[in-house]
Each structure stands twice: as C-alpha cells, then as structure tokens.
C-alpha cells in the first residue's frame, strides 16, 4: 500500500508526534510507559491523547491490574495511516530543503519553477 504524503497539523505538536511515533510500532501500551518514554507529565499525556482520540487517531482502553486502575493507548488504523502520511510529507519537505531545485514541493506536489 502506497502512503500518500499529506500534512497533518495535529502531529505538529512535539508530544503528539512523539506519542504517536512510540505507539506506531506497538499494540497496546500502558499510559505510564508512554509518559516515561516521551518524558511528559501525566496531564500533558492525558491532554494530547484526548486530542488524538477525538480526531479518531488513538484508541484508549481503561481497566485494572489487581486493584489498580490502568489506561492503555494504541494508534487506530486511521491514526497509523495519518502518521505515515505526515512522516512521508516531512520526508518530502526534508528532501526539498536538501535539494531545492530538484525536488517536488511537498506542499503542492510540483517542482519549484525557480
């Protein structure tokens, strides 16, 4: 399946991109693990995960282990697709910066006439 390079502004907040990058290679990841690996506070992870969930990019499951409540996160299929598209767009942007006369514009998809 080809990935369509497309800018997704929702990923342009550092913690959201980090959160999604962490989750893209996993199934369910416990909230505390996400928090620790991206180096964000509980409230920041909660806020960003809620934004991603409302966009349909993240799934949240709540339960318990013993008597302790737990929350797990994972990217939804549409979240994985959107993240791949955004990363592809960023790669195109990087190529345009590295060779401005040779690459197609990641924004318009056309070569720079200059």
TrEMBL record:
InterPro entries: WH-like_DNA-bd_sf, WH_DNA-bd_dom, WH_DNA-bd_sf. Residues 16-91 form the Winged helix DNA-binding domain. It comes from the Bacteria. Signal peptide: none annotated. Pfam families: HTH_34 (PF13601). This is Transcriptional regulator.
